[in-house]
Amino acid sequence: MKKKFFELIMLIGLLFTALPFSQASAATNNTKATDTSLAKIQKKGVLVLGTSPDYAPYEFQTTKNGKSVDVGMDISIAKQIAKDLGVKLKIKNMDFDSLLVALQTGKVDMVMAGMNPTPSRRKSVTFSNVYYKGGQDIVINKKDAKLYTSKKSFEGKTVGAQTGTMQYNMAKKQIANVTVKGFDKGADLILALQTNKIDGIVMEKPSAEAYGKNNPQLSLVNGHFNLSSDETSSAIAFQKGATSLAGAVNKSLAKIQKKDLINKVYLKEAGSHMETNTVNTSMFHYWKYFAKGIGYTLLISAFSVFFGFILGTILAFMRLSRNKIFKAVATAYIEFVRGTPLMVQIMFVYFGIGLIINLPALTSGIIAVSLNSGAYVAEVIRGGINSVDKGQTEAARSLGLSKSGTMRYVILPQAIKNIWPALGNEFISLIKESSIVSIIGVTDLIYQLKIVQSDTYRGVAPIVVAMLLYFIVTFGLSKLLAYFEGRMKHAN
Q: Where are the transmembrane segments (predicted)?
């Protein structure tokens, strides 16, 4: 039995890992055979752009008419490209290190995020022509301006860079004995710098200048890095082999460059938006961001609690069943889910299953969190049922109750009372753990926190607001659960 159990776990694991790669391989082979990337976009009438809006002046967010909108140089270029193609532009926001995965799995049609077309990236995606050339700077605290004058000053120090970027690898290779810490968002890097967790930030020159201009506590150092043309350039990424789409986009880029729209229009517009963001950086001014974030957090949590409880109940009964197949399947599922991180599960549902069914980010987040919660709820329910004395079952059966009737009227009511505190803890934990859905672009509270940090150039204040909101929600829920627990005890 143990051998079959482990074989089942291995089979499930292989299916989880092999499915995305097999689907991606098939997609790649199809692309090589016939490139219809441009035709498909023109047929559906929508060009989907993937970006990470925390990298001013390339892409960031601002408030227009009370709504959060994506702006920046890259966004302006993307709008012109969509216009030239005769289609609408749809923007999907997510973490930078998820963008190429989203591209390869068909979640987005192209990626713009100040991305450098490095040789390693060219192996997996197709790039457009270069549309902008910048440089690389190191952002430091102004009080340390005398300590750091070039990249050599950081030998033996700790620097930060955005995870998955060329800057991260460049710092490791070109600064001796340096420790490089990766962060998902630019705002996290600035916060780490200002709280002395790192000594400097390796950042693309335009973004470094944007932070320096809008934050008087920061200063810039020219790192004098040894850079190839790819490492000072930005290009648009497409699926590997999407040459027809890349060709059409290159025509738009040529028109933009001929008119010098980037320098004459797009960068000036981005600067204007950045100035607007810093006019009022109070947290109250951004209350709609936090309200939207807490709304999505509660929505995800409510659905996940509901579906997770149903799934957990089914799994608990399967594991308690005398049917060996049901028991083995439930055990394998529970052990596998509890043995893998929630973040990986969310990415698998969104990117892996998304190869077969194109699920929206919100739906993917709810499904992943529900599936994860179900495994933990199952063990709580199973433990509660096992905690009821076996004599209760024998007494009920001797009085003529059926097996199902005994479970329904005798065992479960007592089990629920026993497990209520544990279930409450699981539901409260779920609210906090749901914050990880922000990695796929779900606009929950953590996602909005990052946006406010990026827009206001303030690191700590948005965190404090988010902490208070989480506390209010979880404290309120704990009091509600305690009320019902008291009612149960009173009913005894």
A: 293-317, 348-371, 460-484
In the DSSP assignment, the letter for residue 115 is -
**β pairing state of 132-133 and 233-234:** antiparallel
Instruction: Determine contact, residues 450/437, Cβ cutoff 8 Å.
Output: no
Q: Are 22 and 80 in contact (CB under 8 A)?
A: no
Q: Which two tokens stand for residue 336?
A: 């596998």
**Partners of residue 88 on adjacent β-strands:** 46
Enter the DSSP assignment of 55: B
Residues carrying CATH 3.40.190.10, the chain: 35-133+233-279, 136-226
pTM of the full predicted structure?
A: 0.75
CA angle 197, 162, 179 (to 5 degrees): 50
Which residues lie below 8 Å from residue 418, measured CB to CB, with a gap of 6+? 384, 387, 388
Euclidean distance between CA atoms 234 and 240, whole angstroms: 17
The CATH code that applies to domain 35-133+233-279 is 3.40.190.10
> pLDDT (tens digit, 9 = 90+) per residue, 201-229?
999 888 888 888 878 889 999 888 887 77
CATH 1.10.3720.10 segments of the chain: 285-491
Q: Tell me which fold the domain 285-491 belongs to.
A: MetI-like fold (1.10.3720)
Structure tokens belonging to residue 388: 């009821």
Looking at the DSSP bridge assignments, the partners of residue 452 are none
CB contact at 8 A, 186 and 162: yes
Tens-digit pLDDT profile for residues 120-177: 899 999 999 999 988 889 999 999 999 999 899 999 999 999 888 888 988 999 999 9
- 131: tokens are 């549309």
The residue ranking higher by pLDDT, 410 or 294, is 294
Token couple for 154: 């950081």
| CA gap 144, 396 in Å, rounded | 76
Peptide bond into 360 cis (omega under 30): no
Helices (H), 123-196: 166-174, 186-194
Terminal CA-CA length for the chain: 42
Angle between helices 361-387 and 287-320 (to 10 degrees): 40
For residue 277, count CB atoms less than 10 angstroms from its CB and return exposed for 0-12, middle for 13-18, buried for 19 or more.
buried
Residues 231-271 have pLDDT tens digits of 678 999 999 999 999 999 999 999 999 999 999 999 999 98
CATH entry, 136-226, from 3.40.190.10, 3.30.70.260, 3.40.50.2300, 3.10.580.10:
3.40.190.10
What single-letter amino acid sits at 441? G
- Max CA pair span of the chain: 90
